[in-house]
Amino acid sequence: MTIKADILAALREGQRLTPLTMLIRFHTMAGCQRVNELRREGCPIQSRMIELEGGKRVAEYWMEQ
To answer: For the whole model, what pTM was predicted?
Structure first.
């Protein structure tokens, strides 16, 4: 499978992904670009900004079940 397909499978399973989780799980620093590609292809991926412990804000992606 491709990284994009792996990300889509994880989102379809109900997992929530951040850029860091995509780096760790899928070994890619382009996870956000893959998410945007999936959105352009019609996938209903939602996102919001979340705040981490150190105050850093990152995007979190998911799909409604």
So the answer is: 0.91
